[in-house]
Amino acid sequence: MEVVGYVHNDDFLLEDGHSVMVIGGGGYVLSCGDQVILRDCLDEEKKRYLVSICFANCETGLLHEDQMTLKFVGDRTNFQQYIKASTVH
Q1: pTM of the predicted model over 0.90
Q2: What does the alpha-carbon distance between residue 58 and residue 48 come to, in Å, rounded to a whole number?
Q3: Could you tell me which residues come within 8 angstroms of residue 26 by beta carbon, excluding any fewer than 6 positions away?
Q4: Can you tell me the distance from the alpha carbon of 61 to that of 77, in angstroms, rounded to the nearest whole number?
Q5: Tens of pLDDT, residues 6-33
Q6: Residue 3 neighbours by CB distance under 10 Å
């Protein structure tokens, strides 16, 4: 999935044309255009995943591994509900 934006300060919004995902808690700072691939679930209860990252500005296409927390996955309609429920007004 491609990073298309930022949510709640340090979370990243990813999209692939069919669904959207919010992830965070990794060691890398991601930018719009970076690609993130969920690999293995490390902790189901905490929704912690091993991910592979391909940075948009990296000409070699090398993949970097990180661990991130999956905070949301769904369609655009569900994403709007997630934003309303998780945003402090």
Answers
A1: no
A2: 25
A3: 51, 66, 67, 68
A4: 33
A5: 998 789 999 998 999 999 999 999 999 9
A6: 21
